[in-house]
Each structure stands twice: as structure tokens, then as C-alpha cells.
Amino acid sequence: MLHFTMRWPGLGLSVACESCGENEEALRIFMDNMPIKTVQGHEMVGGWMLRDRSVVMNQRFFDIPASKLSLETMKDAPVGRISMLFPQGRMTELLVKYDNCDDFRSYVPVAKVAEQDLETLKEAGRLQWRSATRSKEVIAVEFVVEDH
Amino acid sequence: MDWKALKKEIEDIAAASVENCPEDILRVFEYEIAPEGCGTGGLMLGPWYEGATASRYLIPYYMYNIVKLTKDLNLSVERIRQHMRLTMTKALGTAELSGMLVLADLTRRTMACVDEMENREEVLELLNALYLYGSSINAWQNYRVKWGLNQAFVIPTGHELVEMGKRAEESYI
């Protein structure tokens, strides 16, 4: 099983993540690019999702054709789902569903937040929503491979 | 799919939108109606900003560039299809989710039609029709978007902007 950690040093929060069983090769490429640090935002249209607009993959090129990737809508995905949007070359967007969504757009599911960390994920989501709509505080997120 | 019929349909809607505000713009930006569940936290702020941005990317930016690229006579219809799929799909999904339903429908049908077409000049004619309509949408959006919404947010001071700029490196490593 592929494991990694998503953490927010500025918030003092972290969650354990693991493969969701879909698109494992895409997840491997993502993990080969870790550690990754990026500014995190919040989805404004489709529901309660964290959204990283610019995830740079400088260490391993993403070269899987879109036709080889399975898709899922965030509306149908379980809470905790981590999905890519338009991964190609050295860039992808990354979304993390932490509560209900009505988003019917298709994403590439790669991982999930561990069940025991879903409340921590919701807390991160709540703080990110506050930042997106009120405080404008810049919140960075890190993705790292750690021993679990 | 009859590309000529689709082109005529788009041209008629585009012609009507010169003087009359298009249905999408009235629905989303004037009457604040969006698909059920759309708008995180029940806010129309997202559909306004994301819908406007996605619509602008979809046609006046992506399709404009594709039409511009077709000046290169060596650009095949298959290449045009590839560019459409690569660049337009994401913006199309967001525009549709934000309630820009007519624009999304015409774009989807245009893309499906181009999938079946082989004559480069005919493809270009169809794309130009959609480009014209999308440009009209863009103009009406600028007119109808609720610019006053910006006043709901704290406007950063010069010092804060400098501090934000210093943290730009945090966007990725």
C-alpha cells in the first residue's frame, strides 16, 4: 500500500493518506515528486474541497495519457478522496474532498485520507475556508513520504 | 451531427446577444440562479468568479488561440481536435457547473461535431461561429458581473502586498 502524509505546518495539523486503489501509477509519480509544498486554496463552486492550483512535479514528469486514467466525480467520491485534475507534464491540480460536494466534473482519483484523520482534515478545511472567504491568510500544505 | 445546422443555431444566438443580454448572463449574474448545490457554502461568489473566469478561458482565450493556430495551414483537423480536448475540457466543466448552460451546451455540441468532421475549412467556420458567441458572452459578463462584490473584502495595503509577494516562493518547491 502506498502511504504519504499531507500536513499544514502553519496550522499544526497533518493527516495520513494512502492509495485508494485507483490510478496507482499516477499516485507513484506524484509520490516520486515528494516532498511537495504548495499554497492551498478552497474550491468556490463545487463544494467542500481543498484545492491546490499549482502542484509542480519537478522530479518526475507526468506522462500517463489521459485515456489511461480512470475518472470519478467529486459528487460521488467519498469524503477524504484525493484527486488530480489535468495532470500533465510538470503540473497538476490537486483536490481533497472533506465534506459534501455537488461537483459533477471528472477528476482522477489517486488516494484517500485515513479514516481516523477525517476530523483533522475537516478542521483544516474549515480553516482554509475561513482564509479563502475572510482572513486571506496564506496557508501552505506539504506532501511528504513518511514511515507509518 | 449536422454542422451547418449547429453553426446556424450558434450564429442566431450570437446575433441576438449583440443587443440582448444572453440567457446565461441573466440567469447567473443578474438573477443569481445556479444549478442546485452549486456555490460552496451557498455563496454565489464562486459561480460568479469561477464561472466568469472559466467562460472567458473557454472561448476568448482557448478557442481564440485554436482559431489563431489554424492560420498555420499545416495544422490538421486531428491537431485541432487535440487542442480542443486538451485546453477546453476543464474550463467547460467549470463554466457548466457555474450555470453557464447555453455556452456549455453549444461548446459540447461543437466539440462533438468537430470529432466527426474532416474538412478543415468547415471546422474553422464552425469554430468561428462559437468564437463570436463566446466573445459576446465575455462582453456581457464584464457589464453584468457584480464588481461591487470586491468591497466585501479587505483591500490589502502596499505593505501587505509586499509581504504576500515575499511568500510567493511558498507556492511550490
Characterise the protein shown here.
The complex is a heterodimer of chains A (about 150) and B (about 170). The mean pLDDT of chain A is about 95. In chain A, strands 1, 2, 3, 4, 5, 6, 7, 8, 9 and 10 form a 10-stranded antiparallel sheet that branches. With about 150 residues, chain A is α+β, with helices and mostly antiparallel strands. Chain A has a single domain, classed as Cyclophilin, CATH 2.40.100. In chain A, about 20% of the residues lie in helices and about 45% in strands. Chain B is built from 7 helices and no strands. The termini of chain B are far apart. Chain B has one domain. With about 170 residues, chain B is mainly α. The longest helix of chain B is centred in the first third of the chain and has 25 residues. In chain B, helix 3 runs antiparallel to helix 4, helix 4 runs antiparallel to helix 5 and helix 5 runs antiparallel to helix 6. The mean pLDDT of chain B is about 90. Chain B is globular. Chains A and B meet through strand 3, strand 5 and strand 7 of A and helix 3 and helix 4 of B.
SS-based structural class of chain B? mainly alpha
CATH topology of chain A: Cyclophilin
Shape of chain B: globular
The amount of helix of chain B comes to 55-70%
Structural class of chain A: alpha+beta
Task: Using the coordinates above, name the CATH class of chain A.
Answer: Mainly Beta
Mean pLDDT across every amino acid position of chain B: 90
> If classified by CATH, what would the architecture of chain A be?
Beta Barrel
The radius of gyration computed from the alpha-carbon positions of chain B, rounded to a whole number of angstroms, is 18 Å
Major pleated sheet of chain A: 10 strands, antiparallel
Low-confidence stretches of chain A: none
User: Order of SSEs of chain B, N→C?
Assistant: HHHHHHH
How many structurally independent domains of chain A? 1
